[in-house]
Amino acid sequence: MRAGKVVTGEELVIREIRSGRAELVILSLDASRNTAKKIMDKCQSYQVPILRYGSRQELGLAVGKAERVVLGIADAGFARMLKSSRSE
Predict the structure, then answer these.
(1) Would the pLDDT of 87 be above 60?
(2) Model's pTM, two decimal places?
(3) How far apart are CA 42 and CA 40, in angstroms?
(4) How far apart are alpha carbons 82 and 61 in whole angstroms?
(5) How confident is the model at residue 31 (pLDDT cuts 50, 70, 90)?
(6) What is the C-alpha to C-alpha distance for residues 64 and 60, in angstroms, rounded to an integer?
(7) Contacting residues for 6 by C-beta, under 8 A, at least 6 apart
(8) What are phi and psi of 27, to 5 degrees?
(9) Which end of the chain has fewer CB atoms surrounding its CB within 10 Å, N or C?
(10) DSSP states of 3-53 as a string?
(11) What per-residue confidence (pLDDT) applies to 84?
(12) 4 φψ region: left (φ > 0), alpha (ψ -120 to 50), beta (else)
């Protein structure tokens, strides 16, 4: 977060996806159906990988904020590390 490579919130993440800066999107498992569809459709159309993980509380704790439903990762190395650790 401090390095400015992680954005949170639906609108900010969508902006990052559209701009081509998002390398990975993490969406909580308890996101609403409408939010999940919107984010997943946007990721698919811009070919951004998406991970479904944890609860909104867990995502918030991971970035030191209150509850967060969606995170956008803009750092390629960090995104690669998260994807590889998730697949192991």
Answers:
(1) no
(2) 0.89
(3) 5
(4) 16
(5) very high
(6) 6
(7) 63, 71, 72, 73, 74, 75
(8) -115, 130
(9) C
(10) TS-EEESHHHHHHHHHHT--SEEEE-TT--HHHHHHHHHHHHHHT--EEE-
(11) 84
(12) left
